[in-house]
Design goal:
Shape: elongated
Transmembrane segments: 31-47, 53-74, 86-112, 118-140
Order of helices and strands: HHHHH
Keywords: Membrane, Transmembrane, Transmembrane helix
Number of strands: 0
Largest sheet: none
Number of helices: 5
Number of domains: 1
Distance between the termini: 26 Å
Length: 152
Amino acid sequence: MTIPPIDAELALAEVQARRAQVIDNNLTPPWFWPSLGGLILLFVAAVESEVPWLVATGSIVYGVGLAVLIALVVRRVRVQIRPELLGVRGFLTIFGFAAGLVVAGLAVGLTLEALDVPWPATLACLPVAAGLAFGGPRLIRHLRTLMLDGPR
């Protein structure tokens, strides 16, 4: 018994649609990125204040906030995406994104420190937080494209 070409095309389209649905349901939600950036900014400002109670409070808020963010994302995920879906390009993209944010933050922070600008680390976190807020969702869209175009 042979399968008619139209039935094979419909079955393949259904498989591709389900694959896209699995990928979409397991990506980091857009609200995660600005939330993470805000938590990092709050933590760095608290530490840089050098006020003991503020450092302690900021550290606790950061720890609890990060735990809540991660719990919300993990709770949303129904299945784990296999690393093979990302491939080398996906991992390099993630590494490049993270490295770019680190380099930008360090460059701004060290420059501000050299210029004796007050609160250099906190100010250096502003472009990092913005990079997370605006770049994170773009990163996820790019990774989605890589996963959908990757091996089946």
